[in-house]
């Protein structure tokens, strides 16, 4: 089996109410910063026009906030970068509203909420807001959604030799859906994966598929990340972002992200020096 090529990470972005931004998250993951108290309110992504910004659901606001931050950090034109958006559930509050309304009074269903209920709503807002005509994908793999999205982005980057934006996001469970899935809060992450090292590279990424990995994701190490380990399915990204937070030149232990009970995506990062 051929070894996948080394790829390069640019523009890490992170948002959750207690760590609202990559600067805050990086400091906390290094043990140099504290959680925000009180927690931040949801972001207001400038990619959208003011009216759309007000109407956008939390998932769209989060996804676009980190997507824009990653593109800015990578110093790349948003309109030209292919993207992969991944979410285990999409917008659970809208799904709950849709189910409740259809069960009670279907004629009262809001067209706007219906529009925002589709799984590719966030990536649709992104491509429209940025004028991006490059390839865009919306991925879902339930509890393994971050790993699946990262694998999709890495394969696309390696195959096409072009940078790819990866965005992962999920939101809390609402209503009856809490009986079938446990998602407790807002968390979104993003980064750009590039085929070559640039001045914006923060780490190199070696990646492979392994069949002998444990069935659970690598656990977060820092106290700050540990507070988020059960927040929603995007918590699988925490060890990767902890590794990205380390000092330049640092090498990290392998990170395993399960893709199924029998297969995992194994990552090895080397911080850029």
TrEMBL record:
Pfam families for the chain: Ketoacyl-synt_2 (PF13723)
InterPro entries (alphabetical): Ketoacyl_synth_N, Thiolase-like
Residues of the Beta-ketoacyl synthase-like N-terminal domain: 41-203
Alphabetized GO MF terms: acyltransferase activity
Protein name according to UniProt: Beta-ketoacyl synthase-like N-terminal domain-containing protein
